[in-house]
Description:
Low-confidence stretches: none
Shape: elongated
CATH architecture of the largest domain: 3-Layer(aba) Sandwich
CATH topology of the largest domain: Rossmann fold
Number of domains: 3
Subunit structure: Monomer.
GO molecular function, one term: ATP binding
Distance between the termini: 39 Å
CATH superfamily of the largest domain: HUPs
Pfam families: CysS_C (PF23493), DALR_2 (PF09190), tRNA-synt_1e (PF01406)
Number of helices: 15
Radius of gyration: 27 Å
Mean pLDDT: 91
Structural class: alpha/beta
Helix content: 40-55%
Number of strands: 15
Strand order of the largest sheet: 4-3-9-10
Subcellular location: Cytoplasm
Largest sheet: 4 strands, parallel
EC number: 6.1.1.16
Oligomer: single chain
Amino acid sequence: MTIQIFNTLTRQKEPFVPIEKGKVKMYVCGPTVYNYIHIGNARPVIVYDTVRNYLEYKGYDVHYVSNFTDVDDKIIKAANEHGEEVGELTERFIAAYFADIEALGCRHADDHPRVTAHIRDIIDFIGVLIDKGYAYESGGDVYYRTRKFDGYGKLSQQSIDELKVGARIQPGEKKEDALDFALWKGVKPGEVSWESPWGAGRPGWHIECSVMAREVLGDTIDIHAGGQDLTFPHHENEIAQSEAHNDKTFANYWMHNGYVNIDNEKMSKSLGNFITVHDLRQKIDPQVLRYFMLTVHYRNPINFSSEVIEDAESALGRLRTAYRNLMFRLGQTADNGDQADVWLHRITEAEKAFVDAMDDDFNTANAIAALFDLARLSNTYLNEKNTQKDVLQAFLGTFGKLAGVLGISLETADELPGEEVDALIAEREEARKNRDFKRADEIRDHLLSQGIVLEDTRQGVRWKRG
């Protein structure tokens, strides 16, 4: 089955056909680095990291780009409040961003372009828009003539007339039309700036992604992605800028993930329900947050609460237990079981269900359901009187591969290593043989304190993380 992607531009699922066979050019809007990322920021990072993983699983060579906005009103304000230079502040929070996404099991992008490294490209790009009549200078600022671009509003499906109703010219703006937006902002006292043909200043927000996407990936890209809140005006303005400049389609597929709510309320600083990943991962395994984010289809809103996180932690624990039970049995002498081909076929069918789910607009919720079906199948197999090494290896290989696509680790970094658990169990068994029951109990209690539960089975002592 061909991958189907829901394209925000057309409001329907479309078969994915890349510009160049076997290759994908993908741009995901990255963070404005003035603070730690919050869990709303984390959702697109997790979602599109998973999309990238699956595209690679399907054999595509993915060029994945995610930018850093490292100059902005919020950044300048935060730098002033902290008594830092803008560059010092952004470097600090870029490092924090990488620490957070790595903890969430997300890989770095292939390229992380920064606005400050592309100022000359941005100036040149704006110059072309002015020459074409799509932009104009006014009192040191440069604005985009929104009405001149035919089709403005096609991504958000809003008409110019609808947009005009709420449009206002703010104090200090020198626009021809209230709908026009800034490409270049003249310098204000105390702000970082660069020289340009229109005077000292800095780029507007929307122009940055248009330029960085073009510089790294070219005039037309396969997939442009980001949060639902970016659909308008950011992505709408990117299309207007890029297609006016390049005379080509900017992106063939637009993907947008839904919002994150906190206890059924929209997350916001004013409500006091603003949760950073930096703080949250001090309290829970960050892999639990990743798992939770994938339990709902990416286009739907998702509600964060302590209860759903506890459920996610429990569910992830069951998957890890199933995996470890397979590892445990593999470490024992495996007999030649019957009906190996039947079990191998069932494993293949479980993987097919996973693929069908992900082919359907990256439906991670159904993909997780397929992963649990595989776990239940493996538990059933382990209850068989005889097991076969090839089947156990097939279960483990498929389990690891599919969990890897979702970016879910079946191990955790801070837990007692499996080899150490096995060594303690062996020591306990030796103590029991020597009737040293005190030492045996001490070992059991120590393992229990580490969340390790021992189970006596016909095949020997099995352990799991409780």
